[in-house]
Amino acid sequence: MLSHDRIWTAIDELAERHGLTASGLARRAGLDPTSFNKSKRQGADGRDRWPSTESLSKVLQATGSSVEDFLSLMGGKAPLARGDLPDSAFLPQHGSIPLLGFAQAGAGGFFDDGGFPAGQGWDLVDFPANPAAGGNVYALEVQGDSMMPLYRDGDIVIVEPGAQLRRGDRVVVRTRDGEVMAKVLSRQTPKAVDLASLNPEHPNRTFGTEEIDWMARIIWASQ
């Protein structure tokens, strides 16, 4: 039977096999370097946090490993089954994706500590194409005029947690205080994140990294 510990152990062993640390493996796969840190393997509430299927797929591709290789590191003999990972690791990518309003996104219980959907209360929205690299994505509905003129009230933005972030990317950010906003990433250092406002009537923002709960790249928006 697959378990939380065995999956993370397999990731560590895969990294070691290629002469990498867990952070180095994440970086090679195009993920946030902290994605596989031990501190990220449990949420703030102490519950186990699982790597997403997108992260596993990128790691296997980056190392030239097969699913069978990964299973062998866990001592498994069968392909990964849906029942072996929590529901939050499997998001529908064709036909519909999870949808939540920005106001709801500020409340607790809708996301895990990686910024992926969790818990109940999500709606669904049709999205016929598999966006970007085809990873785990979800939709947020814009509410209010704070993101004008780029995003209007009722627009839908599709975000991809875990995607590599670059200066100039449009991002959705959630702070540890529960504030959710769409901004442009101006600068990111180990200590701070500078965000430019989409609406000139709203100020730019700077946060210490410890103030950020998660940050996800916007990959598509309805206009």
TrEMBL record:
Domain of life: Bacteria
A Pfam family annotated for this UniProt entry: Peptidase_S24
Residue ranges of the region described as Disordered: 31-54
InterPro entries in UniProt: Lambda_DNA-bd_dom_sf (IPR010982), LexA-like (IPR039418), LexA/Signal_pep-like_sf (IPR036286), Peptidase_S24_S26A/B/C (IPR015927)
Signal peptide: none
Domain Peptidase S24/S26A/S26B/S26C: 98-219
Keyword Transcription regulation: yes
One GO MF term: DNA binding
Listed Basic and acidic residues bias regions: 42-51
Keyword field: DNA-binding, Transcription, Transcription regulation
Protein name, entry field: Helix-turn-helix transcriptional regulator
